[in-house]
From TrEMBL:
Transmembrane regions: 106-127, 139-158, 170-187, 193-214, 226-245, 257-279, 304-325, 337-359, 366-387, 393-418, 430-448, 460-484
Gene Ontology terms for molecular function: transmembrane transporter activity
Family indicated by similarity: Belongs to the major facilitator superfamily. Monocarboxylate porter (TC 2.A.1.13) family.
InterPro entries linked: MFS, MFS_trans_sf, Proton-linked_MCT
GO CC field: membrane
Subcellular location: Membrane
Record keywords, A-Z: Membrane, Transmembrane, Transmembrane helix
Organism: Aspergillus oryzae (strain ATCC 42149 / RIB 40)
Protein name (record): DNA, SC023
Length: 490
């Protein structure tokens, strides 16, 4: 077997990553237009003598030159900058294994994040019945801890998925989530609900969320927006199913809270078993992946700006999901209608997840769609202040559901495009999601503190906070979009 020199290896990498005409131009002649130099002088100048340095160059050089090509609008590489950011790997974009993985992710989101999306039902029930002696702010910690755990464990879950495949973290998540629900079914006091339905369920969801989402980007590129949106819409399907089921069992049929939670737990177990069997990684298991690439993650300004935007967005976007049920009841809606309004919110989000993914795939670009949708969500969030009757609240719920669902579906494809290789999309998503977890941890309690008296006017500060967070997030997403490329469609 012929051994290549370090220079020869880097030339082979460039030849593999770029179209033939562009690679030939870079390696043999250089390209003044793109700012390249021939490989031989490049390697000689830097004195590359070891494989460790070469590995670092492989990632940073290939990624930076892809982006430079996109900025200069090189015809040989195409105008789709989102493909330039991530290396042109041979994505299947279909096939049995790809679609079964998408179905598995969809089921996992129904069982886990979908349950959390319907959390306003339990928030309302605990405030009025089961934990009426506790404050709204205290009870909000249950949902906030769930949301925090879902995000916080992402970095470890994503790395575990990259190394050993998604089945292991999905299995661990199933055990913790179902166990937490079963323990909540026998809980009587606030701290017991916080430990079981809060921390234990949060740990389970944290092991499920990132692997079920990030693995989709290994299989799809052209259809990535549609597929990720479809998978994430599972949380909205769950957000419709769980409130309706809870309302039927708990309110209409008078079933105890304990048995209601046990039935939910058994359904989750069945869904997660199917999801774990269906989800399949594209790349073989390996233990050769290095440690967490946190330093590499923060190398580029665009990634930093994106992460700041994500954190600010997480501070505000979930507030209506926690409080839409009690807010609806404040203006005279029955408990049954208020419970169904949580399902309406998730129904709107289901539409948004699918619609924006299709629009982004059609050529408008993921970063364009993300930026515009964030600003539109901020406008709708400020309009929440004017929703003062049941009809107006329902109309607002549909609009916010569509936009917030779209935002939750589009951020992961954008983040995956910023990753240097498809193999580390799990880690890239995990790092960002873990950082965002510290924002979502305080979402419910902050909103609870901003919530004033019970005549409805007490919601104004909370509504303003939601709109301001989304508006600021839009500013940083816009900055990210400019830092990635100044091309029109990205």
């Amino acid at each position: 077997m012929v051994q290549r020199s370090p220079a020869g290896k880097l030339e082979a990498i460039v030849a593999r990553l770029l179209p033939r005409s562009v690679a030939h131009q870079i390696i043999r002649r250089g390209s003044n237009d793109c700012g390249f130099v021939p490989m031989g002088p490049f390697m000689a100048h830097f004195g590359v003598q070891n494989q460790a340095f070469l590995s670092e160059v492989e990632l940073s050089f290939a990624e930076s030159q892809h982006i430079e090509l996109a900025r200069n609008g090189n015809e040989a590489h195409g105008s789709r900058t989102d493909r330039a950011i991530q290396n042109d790997a041979d994505f299947p974009d279909g096939g049995v294994n790809a679609w079964r993985t998408a179905l598995g992710g969809f089921l996992a989101f129904i069982a886990s994040i979908g349950f959390m999306s319907g959390g306003s039902v339990f928030q309302s029930y605990y405030i009025t019945t089961a934990l009426s002696s506790s404050s709204a702010s205290d009870i909000a910690w249950i949902g906030s801890v769930q949301l925090w755990g879902c995000f916080f464990f992402g970095i470890w879950a994503g790395r575990l998925s990259d190394k050993y495949g998604p089945a292991l973290p999905l299995g661990l998540g199933t055990v913790f989530m179902v166990f937490g629900i079963m323990m909540a079914s026998i809980s009587k006091k606030y701290y017991q609900f916080l430990l079981s339905q809060g921390f234990c369920v949060a740990l389970g969801m944290g092991w499920i969320f990132t692997p079920a989402l990030a693995v989709q980007s290994q299989w799809f590129l052209r259809r990535r927006g549609f597929v990720v949106g479809a998978v994430m819409s599972g949380q909205n399907v769950g957000g419709i199913i769980w409130p309706v089921l809870t309302n039927k069992l708990l309110i209409d049929n008078g079933m105890s809270l304990g048995w209601t939670l046990r039935i939910i737990g058994f359904i989750q177990l069945g869904l997660m078993t199917a999801a774990t069997l269906l989800v399949k990684p594209r790349f073989p298991r390996t233990s050769n992946i290095d440690g967490f690439p946190i330093r590499q993650y923060f190398t580029h300004k665009r990634t930093i700006a994106f992460t700041i935007a994500l954190v600010i967005m997480d501070l505000g976007i979930y507030i209506p999901w926690f409080y839409i049920t009690p807010f609806t009841m404040t203006y005279g809606a029955s408990a049954s209608l208020a419970f169904y309004n949580a399902a309406i919110l998730n129904g709107g989000a289901f539409v948004g997840c699918h619609a924006l993914g299709i629009v982004a795939d059609s050529g408008l670009g993921f970063f364009n769609c993300l930026t515009v949708t964030t600003f539109a969500s901020a406008v709708v969030a400020f309009a929440w202040i004017g929703a003062r009757n049941v009809g107006g609240i329902i109309v607002w719920t549909v609009a916010y559901g569509i936009l917030s669902g779209a935002l939750q579906a589009i951020f992961s494809p954008c983040l995956s495009l910023l990753a240097p290789t498809p193999e580390v999309t799990g880690s890239w998503n995990g790092i960002a999601i873990t950082i965002g977890s510290f924002a979502v941890l305080g979402t419910g309690p902050i909103a609870g503190k901003l919530l004033g008296d019970e005549d409805g006017t007490g919601y104004v500060l909370m509504q303003l906070f939601t709109g301001i967070c989304l508006a600021l997030a839009g500013v940083f997403y816009l900055a990210t979009r400019v830092l990635v490329s100044r091309d029109r469609w990205i």
